[in-house]
Amino acid sequence: MARVKYLDSEDMKTPEAQAAWQRLETERPKPIGAVFRLTAHSPALLGASLTYGQALRADTVIEDKLRELAILTVAHATGVEYAIAHHSGPAVLHGATEEQIGHVLDFETSDAFDERERAVMRLAYESTVNVRVSQETWNAAAAFLDERELVELVFNIAYYNNGARIMAALDVELEEPYKVDPVGQFLKDIKGRTVKS
């Protein structure tokens, strides 16, 4: 059970809270994810999180598939099932295979990934687990990404490390449909929307 109450639109009592919830309903797939329903306790943080997340998804040049593989690496490295489930669908949407989704933890030895993907995932893993990234790991990613893409990769890794720790501390529960078929549920949730997830 989550450590704070899940909120819904009827719980938004102030203009600030109502505006934040309206943004949430406009910008994110429905039904509203559990993590956002908890973040809504702080409308300012919800709004800031939406802005930051949207910038990472829509205003960056790093390849979507690489971004999602990095996010899944963070999710697996932190052991946050909610993040794993909620980013398996976006990864598939952006070109990851089911085989890749199933081998994120053993990306270093799996034939499912190419050297470029491994370099990005290694940087995500090392940054998550060790915080500091070795020069060797940095150089491997830099062989495939330009400086803008590297900065965007680092920001994505940091943002989703932040998210994983929030999810873990608040004990966010994975919604039932995502337990059964996370990829299928995501694709169902975004059907008919132009959301870049």
Describe this entry's structure for a reader.
- By secondary structure, the protein is mainly alpha-helical.
- Helix 5 (81-93) packs across helix 11 (182-190).
- The mean pLDDT is 94.
- The radius of gyration is 17 Å and the shape is globular.
- Helix content is 66%, strand content 0%.
- It has 11 helices and no strands.
- The protein has helices at residues 15-27, 34-39, 43-58, 64-78, 81-93, 98-102, 115-130, 135-142, 147-170, 176-180, 182-190.
- Report the C-alpha radius of gyration, rounded: 17 Å
Sheet-strand content, in percent, reads under 5%
Low-confidence stretches: none
- Percent of residues in helices: 55-70%
In whole angstroms, the N-to-C terminal distance is: 26 Å
Which structural class is indicated by helix and strand composition? mainly alpha
Q: What's the overall geometry?
A: globular
Tally of individual helices: 11
Order of helices and strands: HHHHHHHHHHH
| Mean pLDDT, all residues | 94
Number of strands: 0
Question: Biggest β-sheet: count, sense, barrel?
Answer: none
Oligomer: single chain
